[in-house]
Amino acid sequence: MTKNVSRRTLGIGLIGSGFMGKAHALAFRTVGGVFPLAAEPRLEILADISADKAARAAYELGFARFTAQWERLVLDPAVDIVAITTPNRQHAPMALAAIAAGKHVYCEKPLATSLEDARAMTEAAERAGVVTQVGFNYLRNPMVHTAKEIIASGEIGDIIGFSGQYIAGFMGTPEGSWSWRFQPEEAGGALADIGSHLISMSRYLLGEVASVCAGLDTVYPTRTSSDGQSHRVGIDDQAAILARFQDHPFTATLFTSWVATGREMGLSFDVTGSKGALRFTQERLNELELFKSGQAANRRGFTRLTASPAYPPYGAFTPGAGHQLGFNDLKVIEVRNLIDAVCGVAPAETPFRDALRTAMVMEAVRDSSRTRQWMDVPAQ
Amino acid sequence: MTKNVSRRTLGIGLIGSGFMGKAHALAFRTVGGVFPLAAEPRLEILADISADKAARAAYELGFARFTAQWERLVLDPAVDIVAITTPNRQHAPMALAAIAAGKHVYCEKPLATSLEDARAMTEAAERAGVVTQVGFNYLRNPMVHTAKEIIASGEIGDIIGFSGQYIAGFMGTPEGSWSWRFQPEEAGGALADIGSHLISMSRYLLGEVASVCAGLDTVYPTRTSSDGQSHRVGIDDQAAILARFQDHPFTATLFTSWVATGREMGLSFDVTGSKGALRFTQERLNELELFKSGQAANRRGFTRLTASPAYPPYGAFTPGAGHQLGFNDLKVIEVRNLIDAVCGVAPAETPFRDALRTAMVMEAVRDSSRTRQWMDVPAQ
Amino acid sequence: MTKNVSRRTLGIGLIGSGFMGKAHALAFRTVGGVFPLAAEPRLEILADISADKAARAAYELGFARFTAQWERLVLDPAVDIVAITTPNRQHAPMALAAIAAGKHVYCEKPLATSLEDARAMTEAAERAGVVTQVGFNYLRNPMVHTAKEIIASGEIGDIIGFSGQYIAGFMGTPEGSWSWRFQPEEAGGALADIGSHLISMSRYLLGEVASVCAGLDTVYPTRTSSDGQSHRVGIDDQAAILARFQDHPFTATLFTSWVATGREMGLSFDVTGSKGALRFTQERLNELELFKSGQAANRRGFTRLTASPAYPPYGAFTPGAGHQLGFNDLKVIEVRNLIDAVCGVAPAETPFRDALRTAMVMEAVRDSSRTRQWMDVPAQ
Amino acid sequence: MTKNVSRRTLGIGLIGSGFMGKAHALAFRTVGGVFPLAAEPRLEILADISADKAARAAYELGFARFTAQWERLVLDPAVDIVAITTPNRQHAPMALAAIAAGKHVYCEKPLATSLEDARAMTEAAERAGVVTQVGFNYLRNPMVHTAKEIIASGEIGDIIGFSGQYIAGFMGTPEGSWSWRFQPEEAGGALADIGSHLISMSRYLLGEVASVCAGLDTVYPTRTSSDGQSHRVGIDDQAAILARFQDHPFTATLFTSWVATGREMGLSFDVTGSKGALRFTQERLNELELFKSGQAANRRGFTRLTASPAYPPYGAFTPGAGHQLGFNDLKVIEVRNLIDAVCGVAPAETPFRDALRTAMVMEAVRDSSRTRQWMDVPAQ
């Protein structure tokens, strides 16, 4: 004889079905098999810009229903969590509508296309008391979490140096690349698109940024659309930044570029402490290099730590050391945190408030580049 | 207004809920969101050795029903595919029962604990016309598939050298490690447990093995159980092998060990062709190193290829180049192939027949070590 | 019967016998066996601060004579080239005396402790028509030279990004480390000591620096001497720099530190072109990574070029590809260039004039850090 | 006033001025500046096959005299040490003549082209009481020496696994490559040419080899000479070997090839102990990877040790950690040992007796390949 199993569920409404839409859908599908959860996500409705597109995506990604009108999704009583994976400019209206409807909101980064929007979204969510989370998935990597713990515990002494990069080449070909991403009112360039990950990771590791001095460059001032037409680019292709942190007495270097030929996932950092050091690159996301002082001179060096169940929550994916996590697994960890937060089990790790602080650093970076001055990042 | 979505499904019955049981369950959950499938898996029944264990696992992994009697699962009309992830000795009776019930069978490696069982399982499945697949998941890696294509196409010329290893340290501590895995009637040592992956990968890349000369060693002849009792070990801890392939005129070296201190996932190969070379290690599963002759002397070297949508089916997981797949994703690809085979869309890639050939090589390795002679691998 | 061999020689006078003194001596001993030279160096006189020290060093390093008075060495008629490897503050008086005596001068970096001295030395040498060279040995690496050629030839397109570092940890322990190197009138901190290498390499690869914005930090504001006494540090431990080049339209990041725990030789750069990229680290000085656009998507990646006779003048050291050069070999190449310049065969590659330009960049970096402003680097 | 310096010297007679001839000459020139020596080498006579060639080489490499008759060099009273870098077949007659003249002998590997010659040379040298040394320079690497110490001290427990390779591609193009190296009476193929390094290193690390089972393959059975004529190849291009050591209870794998496309210096080993592991490749000769058990699960991994003064005699070359040694520096260390042995300061590290034992292993490898049997290596 076989017996039945039952579970509590949370209805998911996903808006957008591109790169990140699929990543969200997969994470929601998978998370309940990886982690014990207080409630299991239920793929309730998928919204996209046309009924056809939404129908196909709902079928492919496993949603029960679909719609071409995101406003319906936001209001649907079976939806508990609204996941937003649309172009940047739509984040604000969608999130605000979802918050107004009392839904929890899971939004891709960058939070918004203006600091004002980001602040409005944050304040609305906090007033409404809904759970929010922004998709800074790279912070969810167990190896990055270990880096943070090593820094915070003083294991490598006082932090005395930091370099961070996020370089990638996906915008490296101006021919045929023109899209909404190059218009300043729609998006924010390399700084917003991938630099936001770099800044959020720097803040995650070292705390708040106090001041910045930066140079933003538009390497390709014109780009052509697929029809061959030339367009003037209004955003940055890369940003070079000096940064000082509130709690550390040194100047750090940060660099981000989306025209870095040959690089695919060059999110990396190099942390120096008075008693050790750490190196990480997302290109090898299952590794973290650690140096510790105090070893014999002929037995010391950087030790390559490799992902295993010794680095929670890796073991929830597989008990096999060295078997490795992939990008989608980081999204699963992110979604686990979201559901835990919605169920009241744990705080959300990168709520809108946190993403707002990252946005404030980006604003200071832009101001600094424009004025050619050091800029303080406001405390609030 | 929102619309509903419907799908055809295949009922999955999973026996065993340990390391590989969870990997199977996750793959079945996820696969339909990653790939377009002719039918979506439905997590129907989970069987384990006790009702409690089965109930908990069914709840955690997302199965609709559970049972402590695998014989019921095998006969259940809602089950289309039986997935076997139990200790090695049980593979044969479970698979034979499933085949007898007309079910398709997805079995973990090694196929069986004796060559006779492996042969019987293969022949029964072929007579019954059911689809079978054995879990040689490392072959499903897009980078490994690329290596195979490069070899097969002649892109690196005639193959003139091969070294392969699978070394790991998970059995490296004799204290407290005694289990069924060290009894020859239950299991087959490092050779069967992980060497089977090495041999299947060598065959995948280079074709059939013609003859072998090998030394099997039991590095730790006694091990203690958790109660401190000492037990005599009856199996190999490592195997060093010379191998000749049917289609290649050179002697290869293969080495496998599960007592290799410090290594976690050391499945690697080094292929030399007359016009190029390839290097791979599962420790960095998203990378493949390629050397091609014919470049200028000051512009040549090994090129590090990194996983991206250019290596199908990577793009089904994410359009982001360099974002990386993890171990569980390889299982998703494996399960996709299984479902395609069950639906008649594609042939199974490592059916029982293929696993039987790997078992025949292992048998020749054992014979060679015992007799200290080169042994031919029988053609059939 | 055996026959005799004769050669033309150049007398070498070496001042200082520490780290760099020995490196100079070894290079002069070895160079004639590696390269065909118009004249062979002859180790004529070694000067150090005491007769005992000079005698011992002369014996160990193979000089024919020794002296405790460098002024005698400078005036000795058998000396053709004066090599200066003393503490930074002595470079200027020694070089000026040597120039006044009509000697060619080979001086370690940094050229001087003030911009005025550096300028005076440069102008004196140019007026006197003697050959000068400054020890920026890392530029002599065949792999770095290849990087420069790849950049200059347009092989990787327009240069659109650059990050450079020189981080090392040799000053990372404040206890017992106090020396002349921490007094601003004697030395120039990490920026002068190793940052000068970073700036000279950046200029070597990309041309002149137009403007900089920088933050210099003294990580350890006090250090103790070997007797336990505490001293106030007057120089920088690290420098974070944004830089713009005259011929390139982007902002680069540079970072140098001599308190970078765990790093030994972290001189590295990362160059992005519109059609390719380069990566190098002195930690693996025999390697250079090159990415070229225009390959098939599934056959591209960074290619690891490795030192061989295909990268002149490597072949002068050994015809064996992959055999590798060491640090002292870079000094041999430097000295070859010096002798070629003295013999009129080739121009000196980093004469005082070039080192002066590096010093001008360092001065702008210091000014920028003090004023918290972007600073232009004067054209002359 | 300057003072004079004087020294005791040893006259060097070098036969051959190719690849290794130049390496010897450079080492003899340099060694006295690197190490304090009881006597300094004096480049006395160079012999080569013609007077022209000898004259040019003597001039380029810095010898005082030259000759076209090596017999004169061997008998010259100013010669204390005869260095032999000629084709393999000439090693025996030259060494025997030098020994008969009472000279110390420094001979390149392989010692001879037959085991009988090797034995005769060894016995003649021991009877004559002269110092001998064979050029197994890779053993002189401080990092390899550290590996040996770690193994010998028990720091990584009992040794339970070993894989070694020496693969390179310098014979990978059959067209135009025909030379004396492919005739069995003149040379010994890949096994003798580079496999001798692999075997000597395996013996250096693990002690004597007890038995072997091997397959030798001639990948390219014909090669053409530069005039286009085709020649039948009589030697091996690669060798795959199983080996058991006298003092260790496991089967090791060894592989050597000189047709390994794309590899330049692939001499590497992988040692597993019950409490740790070591990895080394000559491709990065300044690095050694070490794993030690007994660390916390989330702080362990392979540590990359990098060459520095903590690994003697590195510091004699430079006090700068991480500055790196090159191939020629290994020869300098070798020659230091030779001179120390000649001066009675230290025993020679790889005398003829040691090279004879390596030759005996190679003989057993050849016998095993021919008979397809395991072969014992004779104890004497």
Automatic annotation (TrEMBL), chains A, B, C, D:
Pfam families: GFO_IDH_MocA (PF01408), GFO_IDH_MocA_C3 (PF22725). It comes from the Bacteria. One of its GO terms (molecular function) is oxidoreductase activity. The keyword Phosphoprotein does not apply. Gene3D superfamilies: Dihydrodipicolinate Reductase, domain 2, NAD(P)-binding Rossmann-like Domain. Residues 145-279 form the GFO/IDH/MocA-like oxidoreductase domain. Keywords: Oxidoreductase. Transmembrane segments: none annotated. Residues 11-136 form the Gfo/Idh/MocA-like oxidoreductase N-terminal domain. The keyword NAD does not apply. This is Gfo/Idh/MocA family oxidoreductase. It comes from Gluconacetobacter diazotrophicus.
